[in-house]
Every structure is written in C-alpha cells, then in structure tokens.
C-alpha cells in the first residue's frame, strides 16, 4: 500500500468521522465513559497504594536493650541486622536520646518527670527500630533475632525484649488485609475495565452495522478490503484520541475538587497526583483509546468483508 | 466474454432461482434480460458479480472461473465491471464528486487523473452543477446518472445495469437508456435487465427472456414479448 493510499485512508477516516456527526458523538461519549472508569481506577489504585504504604510504614519491630548494654555491641548488632535481605531500615536510639524523647513526650506530666529525677540514673535502655521491606517478613526477622544464631549469641545478654510478639496479631491481620485489598483492587479493576471494553466494542460495532450497506457498495465498486477497512480504523482511532482528551478535561475540575475537599479523607491530594502524572495518565488513556477503538472497528468490520 | 455453463442456483428452502442456464455474451454486445419479477434476472447478475455462488455449473469471465477466484483477484475482476442498480447504490456520505473519485481511488488511479476525469464524466451525464451535492440532495434521475458516471469512469469492459430505470419517470428513463446506448456504441459490453417494454423496444438489440429461472427465448433483434 502506497503513501497515496494511506493519505486517502486517513482523509476518508477524518471526513467520515465529521459527517457521521451524531454516530461519532455517541461513540465518543461511550469511549469517554470507559476511559473515565479507567482513570477513576488509576486514582483508586493510587489512593490504595498510598494508604497501604502508610500503614506498612507504621509497622515495625523494636529491640529493647538492657541498660547495661554497651553501645559498641548494639551498633555491631545493628550492622549485622542491616545485612539481612528482608530488612529495609534499622534506626538506633541511644539511652540518652530515649530519655530525651521520653521527657519531651511527658513535658506536661510533672509527676512523671519528678519521679524520673528521683531515680538519679537513666532507667531507659537503648533501642533498635527495625523496618522490613514487606510486612510478612517481620516474623522471620523476629525469629532470627530470638534464635541462637551466631549473630544473636553474642548479643543474648544485652537484649531485654523484642516487641514482635505483642505486635504479632496486629501485624498478621494487617498483612492479610493488605494482601486482600490489593487482590480485590486488581479484580475489581479488571472486571470493570472488561465491562467497559465490551460496551465500547458493541457501540462501535453498531456504528459499523449502520454502514454495512456502504461497505457492500465499496466492495462492488472494486475497493480492496484493506482500502475499505482503513477509514473505519482511522475513525476508531479518532474516537479514542478525542475521548481521552475529553476524559482528561473532565478529570481536571473533578480532581481539583477532590484535592481541595477530600485530601484528609483519602490521605493524599488527588489533584497533585493528577498534575504530576498528567502525561503518564494521558498516554495510558490515548493508548487504551486507540487500541480499543481500532481493534473494535477491525473486529466489527470483519464480518462484512467476507466474500 | 461471459459464459454460463449449466448454471443452477437454488436458495435454501426454495425452488430454483436459476435452472440449467447456458448462455454466452460476446464482447461489444448490448444484451437485455427480460422477465417477470422472480424470473431469475437479478440472480444471474449476482452470479456474474460473485455476490452469489452457483449451486451447480460454472460462470466464466473470459478465461476466469468467477467463483474460484481469490479475494484479491475478485477485487481486480470487479474493477473490470461497472454496475448500475435500481436503488443506485451510491455512498450516502459522499458527494457526487467523491462517489466517482472513490471508484477511481479503488482502482489505484492518481490524484491528478481523478481531478481531471471526474469533472469530465460529470459533464458527460449532465451533472456538473451538482458536483458537490450529496445523493440525498439529488433527484432519482440525477442519482441514476451519477451511478452510470461512476460505472463508466474506470472504462470497464462490461456494464451491468440491473433495472436502472425501475425508479425513474419516462423522461429520465429515456435519458438513461440513451447514455447506455452511447456507452455500448463506444465498445463497452452492456448487460441490462428490465421489464419496461418501451425500453426494450427502443433499443432493438439482443433480448433474452427468462421464465421461472430458465431461458425461454433468445432473439438477436428482439422485442419485448412476455
């Protein structure tokens, strides 16, 4: 197929799109609905991921050391723990820092502060705060620390307690909730996208059904199948591109409103997310729109091109 | 040019539309097919255009067995045949100019050729003032003349006109027949189906009469005789 033919196919596609007025409008509306659902799901996934990261961030395991434990030994243990593949971050809080934090936390509690003063010595031990990469990995980290491995043998005397067991129930529940939420999110996304694709496909099929006689005439005049199909594919692509721009336009005020009114509820600013990911979202929508439009047209026209 | 060899076409759950037809149409002939509605005229034409397959027998266009052609070869064959129908079969979303240009584009003609030939053929069928009108903005006679212009634009070897005057008043009918005669005089084979007595009698060329799917008469200088 030469350049001339491609040029003619594109020109015919655009002209058909323009002259088919109401039919084109209906197809664009339906595609816009589909792409809006996809955009909403992108936002929903973002909110879900953001909330999950925040929740995950709040889970940790703290190792409390005895007051007599030397800083050298604690730091040695810290660097050993940091080498574990499951560990994301280890934070060291010295005895002095722990006391400072405690005092700051109880600045208004005069009685407690007075009691602390009367002790004359620091009753608080140093701590190591361990964060895992995944919540499911806390158990293995805790087991490792409590076990008799070479790493912990040396430190067994200095560890006062590890709070994993107290947090265990909460961590386990969180792990399963996070897993479930993610799976459910993906499933809902897939089902909704599937439904929308079917609706768009059927709308485009209807527009081509309307043109079936024209297709017959074109065949009769001696046009090749490629030459007949081309303009319909172009029309499908135009639906996709236009509806993705319309969708982005619709989501501008929507996300601005959500950003100013619902940030506390969602935990993140949707408008910021929209503006900072504008081009990625637009690309996803245009890509989906073009693929959806042209594949639907291609499939729909196939039956009218059979001999 | 066209050869029907023992052709039978039976539509499912129906009596034969065409039965055991043997027919030869030579290049340059003007052949009129006449018969009552349901006599099998349109089926014969659909068989030539490969819109229908015969239940038995073969149809040849010169040396090509029409119903054994591949899709691409069939497209090539259709470019050698111009068609005119009672319901015009124009592309509703294209203007008169674009309808004809489309046939030329489909035949792979260059833009310059299209730009020079289309106005010329529209002038030939007296439609120059309607060049940028859509079919729905034109009268029946104008639409039929546009369909004829489209049929002849690629200089086909055969023009098939299936009841082209069925929807037209006497004056437009006369004009369409005159155009078809002129096309035939210039060397193109014409196959016309009609049940208009006046049309047949005014042409005075070969007439084939069909009845219940069978050829009952084949007269060289025929008159309408049903």
Summarize the entry for a quick read.
The complex is a heterodimer of chains A (307) and B (226). By secondary structure, chain A is of the alpha+beta class.
End-to-end separation of chain B:
27 Å
The backbone outline of chain B, from C-alpha atoms, is globular
Spell out the helices and strands of chain A N to C: HHEHEHHEHHEHHHHHH
Order of strands, widest sheet of chain A: 2-3-1-4
Query: What is the C-alpha radius of gyration of chain A, as a whole number of Å?
Result: 31 Å
Oligomer: heterodimer
What's the level 1 CATH class of the domain at 1-80 and 158-165 and 189-226 in chain B?
Answer: Alpha Beta
Helical stretch count of chain A? 13
**Into how many domains do the coordinates of chain A divide?**
2
Q: Which residues of chain A form runs of ≥5 with pLDDT under 50?
A: none
Helical amount of chain A: over 70%
Output the strand order for the largest sheet of chain B.
Answer: 6-7-8-3-9-10
Helix content of chain B: 25-40%
Structural class of chain A: alpha+beta
Topology:
The complex is a heterodimer of chains A (307) and B (226).
Chain A: H1 3-19, H2 21-58, E1 61-65, H3 71-82, E2 87-93, H4 95-105, H5 110-119, E3 127-132, H6 138-146, H7 150-153, E4 159-162, H8 164-210, H9 212-221, H10 225-261, H11 263-266, H12 270-276, H13 278-302
Antiparallel strand pairs in A: 1-3, 1-4, 2-3
Chain B: E1 2-10, E2 16-25, E3 30-34, H1 41-48, E4 56-61, E5 64-65, H2 71-79, E6 81-85, H3 96-106, H4 111-124, H5 140-152, E7 158-162, H6 170-185, E8 189-194, H7 197-203, E9 206-211, E10 214-219
Parallel strand pairs in B: 3-8, 3-9, 6-7, 7-8
Antiparallel strand pairs in B: 1-2, 1-4, 4-5, 9-10
